[in-house]
Amino acid sequence: MKHTQRTHRQQGSVLITVIVLLIIAAMSVVALTLTLQDYARAQAKDRKELQAFYAAEAGCHEVMAWMNTRGVGAPPAIAPYFTPDSTGNFPMLAANIGSGIDIAAYGSQYLPVLRDASGKEVARVTDLKILPPVQPDPPIDRLLCIVRSVGQAARSGNTKVAELYLAVPVSLDPLTGAPAAIMSYASTSFGGNMKVHWGEVWSLSNINMPNKSQMGDNQTQDPYKKYRTEGQIEFNSTWKADKWGKPYASGTYGTIVNPSLTTLNMPCDAVAYGSIGSDYGQMMYQRASLKWPKYDYELIKSIAKSKGRYFVVDASGKLYRDGIVDAAHRVTFEALNVSGVAPNRSNWDDIEYDVVMVDTIAGVKPTPSTPLPTISISGSGVNWKGLYYICANLDMSGLGTGSIPAIPMVREDGLVNTKDGKVFMDGLLVLEGSFSGTGNGILYGACYIERGYSGTGTIDVWYNVALRDGFPRSPIMSNVSAARWKFRQ
């Protein structure tokens, strides 16, 4: 009897223990469930707040993008407000900002919407305003305006307010320009037609002058035209220059040098030229001292990748967009054309200067000894506008003037020429390789050739003086930046 009672008491104790453990376990499960629910709610709240935050931020970035693309994508009624002047300021915006510009008043399509991978809306901008540049503390130099954007997460109603202080940088450093129309930094003699108007031809080495008949205007006809070399100027027999009795270089071309010349960068008009005449001699400077431009490979590459167009070229001269070498990214030279050009070029002035880079496969700046492929371009239909930086040799043939309508070309004194304005390029061509070609394509701007310039029908260059001090600022060169952020709620 006692044994049985003891056994029952032991069984009851075990049962109580089990029940207590089960209660504890159940309470733990409930607590864990509540904790997970609270965590999930907190995560959802954080996610909604983050979505609202990103929406608010997107609204501010949208306005900044308009300012750096001359109003592309902005409401048409106010798009002109986002066109900067030559100093980088926005005078139309300043004149019309008043007490603020409400973007929502121009239509909800101008308010950014954020969607997930499936296209489902997760947040949107519900209010977007451009406000006058009221200085905060501490103040911001060259403050342009303040953008206030309210972002709201879908369904939850969570909101965030972002204020972005936009400023124009104090230093507006444009890309390096072109101090001369044709520049050849090759260590070998510089030949080709060298036909130039309104600007100068520079050469690091000797210049082999073409036939006199290929020279075009003389000094009287074109006072801006000059030939300068750190080496010597060599004339062939068509110039009928009397080289005998004077120092000259041996070889095909005789070098005309004034024995009494002791000062660098002096014209050659003191030398007896036979039938050449001072109209040509006064525009030719030998043993000149030249300050060569240096084009920043990494800077141009960064701009081309982020805001311009970027290509690479393989060993056979084939082009690939975005630096991806496969069949899907293989393109022809037409891909280098600037986009949006009307067939009659009536909108040429509205086409922005682009930054286009054709890089090496290795993605590094070529050295003087790096073998470079050759890109061959022939036929009409070439429309280039901007800074073209090409890490290859370039052979252009058969360009001529074709049927491409003319564009105005403006000289330093304001003279406009449209008669010869059927150009294939408007801008600055920088070649890490050499240039050669046939035909007489016209370039309005300038070209810099690292490895020499030759050919029987090389390009006819009309110098654009606007390139002298720096390449014109274009929308791909952001001149508006986020000076300060402020977030609320």
What does this structure look like?
With 489 residues, the protein is α/β, with parallel strands linked by helices. Among the domains are: 45-172 and 477-488, no CATH class; 297-467, no CATH class. Helix content is 18%, strand content 26%. It contains four helices and 28 strands. Strands 6, 7, 8, 10, 13, 14, 15, 16, 17, 18, 20, 24, 26 and 27 form a 14-stranded mixed beta sheet that branches. Strand 4 and strand 5 (159-167) form a beta hairpin. The longest helix is centred in the first third of the chain and has 66 residues, at 2-67. The radius of gyration is 34 Å and the shape is elongated.
Essential attributes:
489 residues, alpha/beta, 14-stranded mixed sheet, 6-stranded antiparallel sheet, 4 helices, 28 strands
Assembly classification: single chain
Relative strand content: 25-35%
Shape: elongated
Please tally the helical runs, counting DSSP H or I stretches of 4 or more residues: 4
Rg is 34 Å
Query: How many E-type strands?
Result: 28
Q: How does the SSE layout of this entry go?
A:
Layout: H1 2-67, H2 91-96, E1 101-102, E2 113-115, E3 121-131, E4 143-153, E5 159-167, E6 182-184, E7 196-197, E8 200-203, E9 207-208, E10 226-229, E11 233-235, E12 254-255, E13 266-267, H3 278-281, E14 284-286, H4 297-306, E15 309-313, E16 319-321, E17 330-331, E18 354-360, E19 374-378, E20 384-390, E21 393-397, E22 409-410, E23 416-417, E24 425-431, E25 435-437, E26 442-449, E27 460-463, E28 481-488
Parallel strand pairs: 6-8, 6-26, 7-27, 8-10, 9-11, 10-14, 15-18, 18-20, 19-21, 20-24, 21-25, 24-26, 26-27
Antiparallel strand pairs: 1-3, 2-3, 3-4, 4-5, 5-28, 11-12, 13-14, 15-16, 16-17, 22-23
